[in-house]
Structures are given as structure tokens and as C-alpha cells.
Amino acid sequence: MSPLAYPLDWGSRTFIMGILNITPDSFSGDGLMRQDEVIAHALEQARRFVAAGADILDIGGESTRPGAAKVSAEEEVGRVIPVVRTLVKEGLDALISVDTYKAAVMQAALEAGAHWINDIWGLRADPDLAGVAARSGAPLILMHNRRQPVATEQHSGLGGRYVGANYEDLVPDVCRELMESVKIAMDAGVKSENIILDPGIGFAKTREQNLELLDRLDEVRGLGFPILLGPSRKSFIGYTLNLPPDQRAEGTAAAVAVGIVRGADIIRVHDVEMMVRVARMTDAIVRRRH
Ligand SMILES: Nc1nc2c(c(=O)[nH]1)N=C(COP(=O)(O)OP(=O)(O)O)CN2
Ligand SMILES: Nc1ccc(C(=O)O)cc1
What we know:
Elements: E1 15-21, H1 38-52, E2 56-60, H2 73-90, E3 95-99, H3 103-111, E4 116-119, H4 128-136, E5 140-143, H5 151-154, H6 170-187, E6 195-198, H7 207-215, H8 217-221, E7 228-229, H9 235-241, H10 249-261, E8 266-269, H11 272-286
Parallel strand pairs: 1-2, 1-8, 2-3, 3-4, 4-5, 5-6, 7-8
Helix pairs in contact: 1-2, 2-3, 3-4, 7-9, 10-11
The structure holds [7,8-dihydro-pterin-6-yl methanyl]-phosphonophosphate and 4-aminobenzoic acid.
4-aminobenzoic acid binds at residues 27, 64-65, 202-203, 234-235.
EC number: 2.5.1.15
Cofactor: Mg(2+)
GO biological process, one term: tetrahydrofolate biosynthetic process
């Protein structure tokens, strides 16, 4: 079957992005490189996600958690591209997104047939990515994030998690900085209808800031772009419920439901089957979709 046509029918329902981490060190332990036969496992997980209702599959080859080891573009290409090729060849009924901030990785992914670009640095890490995005005409997710941890702060005992969390006024600051990323994109020639914004839950934000940003997501939606939300299994849930990543499904469900009420268009999740049900139920209430 052919993937969903873009632009998606925003507002008609919540779209589901399933996370496929081709990493040995992802924070919630879902990284497929912990296993043998990575490609076979990725394909199996992708099929399971699509059968459960995923619209988009997001493939990542470098953990983005604070303090994670950086991976070279060559190594990331070696992890991600074989999986992109396999999923494209399989012809799954889902869009293929690649979670990378590196222009070289994204260029290779697009050539291998990927459809979407997911940049956790909102075009601030690799300026060449803006041109790659513009030339490809692919939808581009611009996530809010702040500067990379410097060595001394990384050793503060917080793993760099709160570096950059010194906001003057949280929501307006996040909105302004997202619009700076939009400007970088549009100056490079990315069309506004290809831009999706993401508040960056868990990136340079304290627990309280993550909770407030989620509750005020409607203000970010007010910027006029579709919104992607990624709360899945993150530590703001862990700190609130005092639970490890593998026990954060209910907390994720609450965040997903509130996120949809406040205007999220896409949710990025690990537990696809469960969150599809949460999204369908929330859509039935707030969008009257049955
Ligand atoms: N657009 C967007 N991209 C993201 C987001 C997010 O919230 N929004 N969160 C991530 C962290 O989750 P993941 O499970 O992929 O963890 P990892 O980075 O440790 O692999 C990684 N990528
Ligand atoms: N990449 C990230 C992974 C996890 C978290 C978090 O648990 O808050 C934040 C960022």
C-alpha cells in the first residue's frame, strides 16, 4: 500500500509516530542494536507498529538523551540506511521519518526513500540540513532544544539534562526560539506547509517546565503549524510517579491525552498499540471521531 499523502488532514484525527531506535543506548532500553539481526527485528517491529495503527515510523541511529555518546555520520548512516531501505522495499503503509540532525545522514536517508525529516536541534546543529530539507521538499519536524551541554556542566551530576533550562518566560521563550528555527528553514527555501513544530519535551527543561509546557501546548499550536509531541516514557513522568522507563506507560497515556486536548497533531511513542487506543479515545471525545 502507498503511504499517507502529505499534507495530512490536520485536525481530522491524531497521527501516530512509532519510535524505531537503531541504537545500543536509547534511554528507555528499546534500542534494537541490543539484539542480533537488527534489520530483521526492525522490520518485525515496524510491521507490528503499522498493524497497530502507526502512521509514521521514526528511525533513529543516535540516542539523543542527555549525555549519550555522539555517533559519527558514517556510523549513523551504517545503522539507519539499511533499515530505511528495508522498510521502503517492504512497502509498508506508513511514512518513514529519520531522526537525525546531520545533513549527510538525512541526504542518504532521502536517497534511500525516507519521507520525513525529524531534527531535534531545529536546524541549529548542522546548517546544511536546511538546504537538504528545502531541496527534498520533505516535511520537516523542527524541535525546540537548547545549546549542547559543555563538558563542565555535563559533569554536574545531572547528565546535562537541565542545561539551558534558565528561561525568562518558558512558553514565550520556547515559541520565539521555535520561530527562529522556522526562519532558518524558510530562508533556506523550506515551504511553510512542510513545517511541523515540536516543543521538545525533556530537552533542556525541568520536570515542572515539561509539565507546564504540556499544559500550555495550545499556545505553541497558536503559532499556526502542526504540532508533534514526544512525551513517551520520559523522565518527567518518572520523577512524577517515581517509576522507571518500563513502567511509564500510564503516565505517557495521560500526557498523550492532555497533549491531544491542547492541540497535538502527532504523538511520538514507543508503545504504539496502547497509545493508538488512547489517541482514538481522546479523539472520540475532543474531535468527535468514532
Ligand atoms: N521530534 C522529536 N524527536 C525526538 C524526541 C521528541 O520528543 N521529539 N525525543 C526523543 C527521545 O526519545 P527516544 O526514545 O528516541 O530516546 P533516545 O534519544 O535515547 O533514543 C528523540 N527524538
Ligand atoms: N533524548 C531524551 C531522552 C529522554 C529524555 C527524558 O527522559 O526526559 C529526554 C531526552
